[in-house]
Design a protein that fits this description.
The structure is a homotetramer. Chain A is mostly helical. Chain A has 20 helices and 6 strands. The interface between B and D is large, with 49 and 49 residues. Chains A, B, C, D: It is an enzyme of class 4 (lyase).
């Protein structure tokens, strides 16, 4: 966890306090269920539950638990020892027939579910901002670029609508990953329920908003976690895409949009004029990290037999690091898009700078429709287009075409001029917005 | 593509012939739609469709197309040039207003959908075999192992039921990934539909069993592909898990199961007695490869602006390699499980070799339930358990406990013997099977 | 292996013929050594060697060997059976005391060494081209960009000199990786030399240009291969860096350099004017693939005990794929740089377009040296710089500074003009070239 | 950074205090050099140096610097502002002509060099322990296993000698990576030395034990860092290999060695008899993490133009995380090997349990040498070996061979018995130890 890339709400999920509190819930709810089915005395179970409701633990004394763990070298036993002191003799019924993994894995499921909920909310905020800015620039013309080369006009709103659709897909994927991860295992040693019947698991699952793990092997199978972290890696890659777009738009020669630059900010210790897209560069790096956590999560799947503990150290890193980083990145991206300074005039200036080359395809199509073969049409357009290209936008394609008798034989001046109409390219924007945001 | 790790049906998806045939379908169905909406002459569109129905292309002449591409350096133009020769002048209407990406990306979507269908069928076969073998060994006792160390009894059927549940999850994930990838984009340059209206895309999508891409940017966004390949990486990791289980079970000292070893097979050029788990070791390696394709797929997401073509070379590798390898691996795993030689006697022998230590937890619980504190119970069991452990299974935990007065004060002989009952551990097997396979 | 990304010389290394020929050399040289030390009859050893010198194998009949392997399911035995038929009864001495791994691993070492030699030669050609183009543009002014934003002037030659230095480092790393990989193991089952003394290994190693593996365990340890493929991943990342630079330079708005565009080439099926940086985009994708092979190679290290064969399938993919792809990519990059069309006038035009902002740091320094505090100097420069920035290069920083009395109080007009001298920024180019290419 | 996987010395390298102290050194040494060459007043430079020698900074006030950074949003400026207050007016000469990157990148180089020095010392300690334990068990017989299946005898010392050789290679690689990373860049904006001559860089480099970066572009090129982290990934993979070996040896059925289990330690909250290889399982997970940092480091190489800052966030994670984790893992592995409890009797028992099958290859060779063809010899051995295999070690290969007339026709009883001599397999152990540790 890097403090500067952390937000408090997500970081809190990974605090020892939150973890211990979830452990406590698991133990208490399990005892409650055991009381109901007569596995332990009902009165003692009720006493435990009441102690829970009265928050008998109070402040979690992390150093005290750490001190016990230093001796036992076992975290759950250390916690139970500490927590047991807050109870009377009914403490003996805690953890009956359970294993540490029942507690650890179910708690991790709760933490990942909590984390997913924050990430889903992050995505909601991002989607909201993307929609707002997309609608704002729905018809702001912008040159579309393939291979970094001017192609044909789009609108800036379309770019953001694409990003919206992409993050909406990511929301769907993350919601599925959240379901995948949100399971509860209270199945005892090697998962046979020999010492703790499924009813306990079912009760704890319901109390925690989880579903029971159909077959655990002391641990919850790690394909679930692998899918979860792989999904975060996909979301991160989409962040990189949009961040890269902003970085490109802010390049000196392009400068169609800029990250908001606050008054006191210094871009460079040496060059006072600089306004750098540092937030989106930062997001590019953060995306690399979240992606980097995918492979360890995949490697965690192949545990030996019913379980080994090699996954645990990995999860101590990537549980917090992947979710905290992604939360921060989503919030940062939301801020960047929210406050992005957009320069429509510059967009139009760039669009125009190629001497009308961006309309070449339309001319090509018109020639074909006028009866020329595709190959001949292509040759005709290209010989004029190349002159414009080589003039660095000083020549105009429209002018050259008007002077090319082989062209004018098929397409008279008036017809040619029509083909250079910007609105032509924007005529389906409503359709696309309708697909993405729904009809209004 | 490594021939030895390829199966013909999946490999055929990635053949040039299949690719060109899909391209042809896209062009023909697009022309058909254009005819309907009057974008091109209806008669010519009908002529093209008829030519398609009559299979005018016949055998695809790949070398001829390659020869054209060597000149044009453009694959779609090369194909259209070749295919156009099979038509009359109506050929001019092919590809109207479309870009190469419309063809390439939609075709890739079809290929990945076809590949996903094979993989789903592979999973179905694997699930079928897993269920059969799980039911066969539903009550075959087997020592459960955590950390490679004997824990408590499970059954071999439970192991396979776990694998079944894991691959059933993978089936669900893959089905979602298939939906995610199965979209059609016929939106023209930079995706604005300026030269080809959405109706064409909708028609082609329906004809190919795809859904229209809500907003493309000349290309289908690569987050879809990233999700697809990430999902394959998760499936591969589950393969590694089950393969690793078999490798462990086949170890000389364990030998509870063995890959089927055909009569003519030689295990080693030097040591004639050896029967090695080479298929599952091979699967372990194949899983590494499929996982290795995840990161390039994630890196493909951040294309520049409306598109660049950096994703293309990556997909030429991982499209075939990931799907062919995974198909092969799933089939191989299915064969391994199908023919796995299981040794129930050896399983029982191993289970017994620890002098009854596997029942220690039950004793611990019983002592607790008899009124002893958890800590004292633990100490009591551990001091006897350690002696057994150090005897390498020569001493019996039951015998030692019977001789420990502090134990017998709480648990008389008869009670102790009950605690060493194997069936106790298997009493919830029906519940678990019910959860995994449904009640019968 | 993707044919379009393969070059014949590198692909040949991975042909079955080359592999079998190396196997043959290993077996023959081993027999020769065994003859020398009396492990097998000297005459028979000499007969085998003579048969080798006479090329008794002739053309390798791969299908015949495949047919034998289909029965034995063992590749080395299949080859030995086929090759043995070319010999008389002395064939019995082949492979004495050896294991398949002795042959397979040593052969892989030879193949990787051969591959490394080609890659080193590729790097040499790239370095040669980089040096030539760097010297050609040693003093071609070019705006340096940090964060994609104009910073201060550099030269285009400096960019290439940096690339030269980077690839020179990669050459050093690859040479080390080649040494690391080039070892020979002829140590028999589990590597104890029980049945074949070290002298045999030493002889074969010398004959093949390898060093003996100090301690093998039947297999050559895979940390060597991991280091090799990790090094290829670093080289690939440097390729991506230079390819990305070219992609940026070719952007429409920048257009300071372009990939060579051959007369017949079509940039787009739709937009005839387009010249896209498709080679460098392709290189970006290829770099992703070579990087993708690093992790499987790292996962291959942890073999079980003396060996398992999980590494083998991985190496069947990445051995050819990583080396063939990198060879192709290096050659393609060399071609791109060799023929890169450079536009010095456009470079100068871009450099000038910011109204002199690129000289702001020099003014800042001069103000400091004239006695103003750093903070005040910064504020003074920034308030003028911001105006220029906001004018989109229409205002001139020099003009504004000349009109700012707080500035002119410290720096009179003549002094200010001096600070806007381009040569100032290029005065250390000779020093840097001297460091990179050596003094002339 | 995960506190439980951190050791203080390595963690201290990544503390803000250490980073600021290095920044201070860079600024002071640079000023000193500037004074020498007359770039700033010699007296002021001397004053700064004296202030440094007198430790004018004293305790680094991190919160104070953070507070300044919160305003300036620029870390180096924040530090310089804070540190400048400790000086008189000579503070104006600090950072003359330099950029933040000069400070940041050179400081990172110092930190990585410091980290590498600790890791090299870690490797030295590990090598020392491996050598000691290898010599201790140089002749402790142990069954060699390929594919997890008994093959032929080795010694436990040989296993450790192999590990020694592997980590000795890793030491060489890490030493090379340390050299690669240990460069100094003080080259000013975009690396041209326009405002700060190479002499300053050379002075600072010498003072910090670095070499000057031949050509930087404001930043030190990231191929160096990529190589560094890739090397750490290789070391981690070797850790995983040795950790996996221990995990296998500790399996209940094998139990040839065990991690040291301290008296107070509890293996399981449920099963008191368990001693789990938790340290080596933990190491397996830690290796996954260190490997996971390789790809982000490789992705960091392709910065845009002269620099972007996407690498920075990645390095804030992986700089500390990779080095701290690897340091911890190496120390933990050293402890595991140092205190590993080895059971030679159990090793011998396992070795014997296969009824002498481990000697089958020797019989095969002897039959061949007695004149039988390889194929016939193989068949003869295999038909007896298979019976032993199927008896689960109850039958003895030697006994069966003595009863097989086709065998005894070539190999009489005495000869056969010789072939079952364990020492035969160990006769080259001295040779191998000589290669690995040098002759004594």
């Amino acid at each position: 966890m890097i403090p500067r890339y952390s937000r408090p709400e997500m970081a809190a999920i990974w605090s020892p306090e939150n973890r211990y509190r979830i452990w406590w819930q698991i133990e208490v709810f399990a005892a409650e269920a055991m009381g109901k089915i007569g596995m332990i005395p009902a009165d003692d179970a009720a006493t435990i539950r009441k102690a829970y409701d009265a928050d008998v633990l109070g402040e979690i004394d992390v150093p005290a638990i750490d001190a016990i763990e230093a001796v036992t070298k076992h975290d759950v036993i250390a916690f139970l020892t500490w927590a047991g002191e807050k109870l009377g003799p009914e403490r003996r019924w805690l953890h009956q027939g359970m294993t540490s993994s029942d507690v650890l894995d179910t708690a991790l499921a709760v933490q990942l579910k909590q984390a997913a909920d924050i990430l889903l909310a992050d995505l909601d905020r991002l989607l909201e901002v993307l929609e707002r800015r997309a609608r704002e620039h729905k018809r702001t013309p912008n040159i579309g670029r393939s291979h970094g080369i001017h192609a044909e006009p789009v609108t800036f709103g379309l770019k953001l609508a694409q990003a919206y659709a992409e993050f909406a897909r990511n929301r769907t994927r993350l919601a599925a990953a959240r379901e995948d991860i949100a399971t509860c295992a209270i199945s005892g040693a090697v998962g046979t329920f020999a010492n703790v019947p499924p009813a306990v698991e079912e009760h704890v699952a319901a109390a925690l908003g989880l579903t029971p793990e159909p077959v655990s092997t002391q641990v919850i199978p790690r394909d679930r976690h692998a899918m979860f972290f792989a999904t975060l890696g996909v979301v991160a890659s989409s962040i990189e895409r949009l961040a890269t777009e902003v970085r490109h738009l802010q390049r000196t020669e392009v400068l169609e949009a800029e990250e908001y630059f606050s008054p006191g900010q210094k871009g460079s210790s040496a060059m006072p004029h600089k306004r750098n897209p540092v937030l989106t560069e930062n997001l590019t790096g953060l995306a690399r990290m979240v992606r980097g956590y995918v492979t360890p999560a995949l490697e965690n799947v192949a545990l030996w037999h019913e379980r080994d503990i090699s996954h645990s150290s990995v999860e101590r890193y990537i549980g917090p690091d992947a979710t905290i980083t992604l939360d921060f990145a989503l919030a940062r991206l939301t801020g960047v898009i929210d406050k992005l300074v957009v320069y429509p005039e510059r967009m139009m200036k760039n669009l125009d700078r190629m001497g009308g080359l961006v309309h070449s395809q339309r001319v090509l199509l018109a020639l074909t429709q006028a009866g020329l073969s595709r190959e001949d049409s292509y040759a005709l357009v290209q010989r004029n287009a190349m002159k414009v290209w080589e003039s660095d936008g000083q020549l105009s394609l429209l002018d050259l075409l008007k002077q090319d008798p082989e062209v004018t034989a098929r397409l008279p001046d008036g017809k040619l001029e029509e083909l250079f109409d910007l609105d032509y390219h924007l005529r389906r924007v409503d359709d696309i917005f309708g697909r993405v945001f729904g009809r209004e």
